[in-house]
Design brief:
heterodimer, A: mainly alpha, three-stranded antiparallel sheet, rod-shaped, B: alpha/beta, Elongation Factor Tu (Ef-tu), domain 3, Rossmann fold, 3 domains, 19 strands
Chain lengths: 169, 464
């Protein structure tokens, strides 16, 4: 007598097969989903990275441009300050030179007094200026021929020629 | 400034406001430049306003505050105020009297020029016909600035006219030709002055800028001199050195108020709103110094900025300016309230010379037609908006609704621009096309069919 066949075994086998197929499908889907999620995450990360790179590059370029302008400005400010220093030194030298001329040569002083009288008339009250030269006065009018005033006028007349101090030769 | 000093006059009869009355003078002429030496040794400067027999009236540029009748000496130079001119001004920052404010030496020049200037002989004027590109889309496309033109910006308190002026001064170019900007700030607050210096730093460092800054707390009389110095420097840079020069003058209302103050101190009969009767000719003496001269290189283009008190366009300053200048760029509080920068009102703005400076060979072949069509479409949009306010949006036709869309697109895609965004003309015109194509082809009747075919989608696609 043979052992009775389990009447449910085909059903069991079919169910098992179906369950396995379904599990396979679920696993495949999950795998595909995982791959898709990973791919999209990688793409997003790449996009974010590229955008960050672009923004960083733009920020860097803007900052570099600002830095360049600042550097050019600082250099120009330093150059202007140096020019002002040189010009002030020239002014001091011209003042000293004119004063020296008045001290070394008394005739220059008397020439100034004469010029002052010519401008204001013989009644002008002529006074020696402390640093050389003279000032002269009549009521309502005055002439300044002091060493410093003459030096300032000479410097003004020099005009653009003073730029030779800082222009390349 | 000229330094020749001859006789000094010591008999000061009176000091009144910015005016000094000196008697006993001889051989002194009107508009002569004077150097005033104070008792303390300090120096001030002045201009002769009037001479009556032996009395000269001198307006003191630094004001008469702290001056004494006794001990003050006045020397006349024998000529009107002259300043050195030349490329030495480029890159320099000066106060409203042209004295260096950047720590540098005095500005020196190979020659001197009178700040009063001389009007250009009308016969020798060359008509303006090339554009100055500002990098501001609304200006370049709709109110193109042309070399040698005078085009004012009409603004009101609280609007960003200074930002626009600085942006234009920082970005303007002349198709690669030698270019320079002379910026004259008048009555600026210290914060504004700092903003201007900061905004124009790059241009200054490139030695393409001369900056004159007269601040609000500087003597009011200095303000009268500032635009004249700027124009004198600009004229030399343009007509002798061959550069195209843009002179930005802001704020001309502060200038006119200074003129009113000095006029009142002189006891002149006041005219409209107490401004002197010669306000028109005084403004013209500044604005008319722009232009191009036949046979000479370079050009002087003037962009004055003025604020309309209480937004009143009939106020004497904008009113008289409008008579002299060739159009205007109007800033609008409404556009500003909508959050758009620059708040240009395209329908109130106009450049009378733009037709001569735009088009093929100058800017771009489609430029005049695009500008005209955009203005026409915007005018229609405004009408539609007013209609919608009355009858409701739902009662509008589909075409009307497209016009409302166009206005929106205009504000967001065309007008809105960052304060540091330098927009190329091509980009601006392409944006104008984008805005125009909000409308169906049937509404773009001012554009030639050839241009439309090149830019618009074909008719059958449009229908879908």
């Amino acid at each position: 007598m043979t052992a009775p066949l389990d009447a449910l075994s085909p059903v069991r086998a079919a169910l098992l097969r179906a369950a396995r197929a379904s599990a396979d499908a679920v696993r495949d889907r999950a795998q595909a989903d995982a791959e898709e999620t990973l791919r999209s995450a990688r793409a997003t990360a790449e996009a974010v990275l590229a955008r960050a790179r672009d923004l960083g590059r733009a920020d860097g370029a803007a900052e570099a441009a600002r830095e360049r302008v600042r550097a050019a400005q600082d250099a120009w400010a330093a150059e202007l300050a140096a020019r002002a220093e040189v010009y002030a030194a020239l002014r001091t030298a011209v003042h000293a030179g004119v004063r020296r001329r008045f001290t070394e040569d008394a005739s220059v002083g008397s020439l100034s007094a004469e010029a002052a009288r010519k401008l204001l008339g013989p009644q002008a009250r002529v006074t020696a200026a402390p640093a050389g030269g003279v000032t002269a006065e009549v009521p309502g009018r005055r002439v300044d021929l002091s060493a410093d005033a003459l030096a300032d006028r000479a410097l003004d007349r020099l005009g653009v020629r003073a730029e030779t101090l800082w222009e390349p030769a | 400034m000229t330094g020749a000093v001859g006789i000094e006059y010591t008999r000061v009869r009176e000091l009144r406001g910015p005016l000094l009355f000196v008697e006993g003078v001889s051989g002194v002429g009107w508009d002569e430049f004077a150097t005033i030496v104070l008792d303390s040794g300090g120096r001030r400067h002045g201009l002769v306003l009037e001479v009556d027999r032996d009395v000269a009236v001198v307006q003191v540029l630094e004001d008469t505050a702290g001056m004494n009748r006794t001990g003050t000496r006045v020397a006349f130079s024998g000529t009107p105020l002259r300043i050195p001119v030349g490329a030495g001004w480029l890159g320099r920052v000066c106060d409203g009297r042209g004295e260096p404010a950047d720590g540098g030496p005095p500005v020196l020049g190979g020659s001197y020029a009178e700040v009063g200037g001389a009007p250009i002989n009308p016969v020798r004027r060359e008509p303006p016909d090339e554009a100055v590109l500002t990098g501001v889309g609304a200006v370049d496309v709709l109110t193109t600035l042309v070399r040698g033109q005078k085009l004012p910006v009409f603004s009101a308190a609280g609007l960003p006219h200074l930002e626009l002026a600085v942006q234009i001064a920082a970005q303007a170019t002349c198709a690669g030709e030698p270019f320079a900007v002379v910026f004259a700030g008048m009555g600026l607050t210290h914060a504004d002055a700092a903003f201007v210096r900061e905004g124009l730093a790059a241009r200054s460092a490139a030695r393409e800028l001369v900056l004159f800054v007269n601040t609000a707390d500087d003597p009011v009389i200095e303000r009268l001199l500032t635009p004249r110095l700027a124009l004198t420097v600009a004229e030399h840079l343009a007509f002798t050195e061959g550069r195209h020069v843009l002179v930005v003058m802001t704020d001309m209302t502060a200038y006119a108020e200074a003129l009113r103050e000095v006029s009142a101190a002189r006891g002149e009969i006041p005219a409209r709103r107490a401004y002197p009767g010669y306000l028109y000719s005084d403004l013209a003496s500044l604005y008319e110094r722009c232009g191009r001269i036949r046979g000479r290189p370079g050009s002087v283009t003037v962009l004055p900025v003025l604020t309309m008190p209480a937004g009143d366009i009939t106020h004497p300053v904008p009113d008289l300016t409008g008579y002299i200048t060739e159009g205007q760029i109007v800033l609008s509080a409404e556009v500003q309230a909508a959050g758009t920068h620059p708040p240009v009102d395209p329908l109130a703005s106009l450049s009378r010379l733009m037709r001569k400076g735009t088009g093929a060979g100058r800017t771009r072949a489609d430029h005049p037609a695009v500008a005209a069509q955009l203005i026409a479409a915007l005018a229609r949009s405004r009408q539609v908006r007013e209609l919608a306010d009355l009858i409701g949006r739902s009662a509008l036709s589909p075409t009307d609704l497209r016009h409302l869309d166009l206005e929106e697109a205009f504000r967001h895609r065309f007008l809105a621009q960052g304060t540091d965004e330098n927009r190329s003309l091509d980009d601006s015109l392409d944006r104008a096309w984008e805005v125009l194509l909000t409308l169906p082809r049937s509404q773009l009747g001012m554009l030639p069919a050839g241009l439309l075919d090149a830019h618009a989608p074909p008719r059958d696609q449009e229908a879908r």
